Amino acid sequence: MTGIQVGAVAGAVWLAAGLATILWMARRGHRDPLWLLMAVVFGPFLALMAAERIERTPRLVHADQADDFPTDSTRVLVGIDESLESHAALHAVLRLFDEKSAIVIVLATVVDFDAADIDWRGRQHAAHELLAAARRTVGDRAVTCEVLAGRPGPALLRCARRHHADLVAIGRKGRGLSVRILGSVAEELARKAPFPVLIVGPDASLASHEPVLARRPTESQVEAP
Predict the structure, then answer these.
(1) How far apart are CA 76 and CA 162, in angstroms?
(2) H/E element, 74
(3) Calpha distance 43→116 (Å, rounded)
(4) What are the distances in angstroms from CA 151 to CA 8, 27, 145, 161, 212?
């Protein structure tokens, strides 16, 4: 091999190692685009930096709690993002529980760990705007709004357990490249949640906001800690 070929192979290996590291980080809730630049610069050495940087436990960034509500209220967690499916999930919950129902709605949106620490792209602000819009949709019902950090699936699952949720509602997106690489949040919740999960899929009628799938946990899931 010529020197140019050796250099090209070495460069490709260097870049591939860096990209593999940021993919690993993205699947664990670190999705800042700056990591892409660092992958090019540091290559395989980025893995050493990532090992110290990675957070493994989702956390609460901000909470706006409901003022007062009956302790025996039904608690429903709705995962909110910018997709039409998530807002269809919210409307599905409002259709299932009318204004006379004793219900507390927990609206939660998730940012990555990096945005929770240094919000240079305004992602926390965007998260608050999403929750504010969803809260206006809910109207006069008791509402708690939370911004979470981490991987969306584990973050929502942890939030639901903390609130002792009776139901989780979430939109299910299609099977694009990001879903194939990072996984489906709805499917992860459906597998792991020890409580009923209501899922609104991309093929649902968003005009009527009809839920397309509701599931209940198996006995083994209910008994699991």
Answers:
(1) 12
(2) strand 74-79
(3) 25
(4) 35, 7, 18, 16, 24
Structure tokens at 157: 């699952």
Contact between residue 201 and residue 111 where contact means Cβ atoms under 8 Å apart: no
Determine the Cα–Cα distance for residues 72 and 128; give it in Å rounded to an integer: 28
- Is residue 88 within 8 Å of 206, Cβ to Cβ? yes
Tens-digit pLDDT profile for residues 119-136: 767 889 999 999 999 999
Does residue 208 contact residue 94 with C-beta atoms inside 8 Å? no
Successive 10-residue mean pLDDT values, the chain, 225 residues = 81 86 80 80 83 84 79 90 90 88 90 83 89 93 93 94 94 60 75 90 50 44 39
d(C-alpha 32, C-alpha 46), whole Å: 14
Phi, psi of 186 (to 5 degrees): -60, -45
The dihedral region occupied by 125, where left means phi > 0, alpha psi between -120 and 50, and beta the remainder, is: alpha
pLDDT at 67: 64
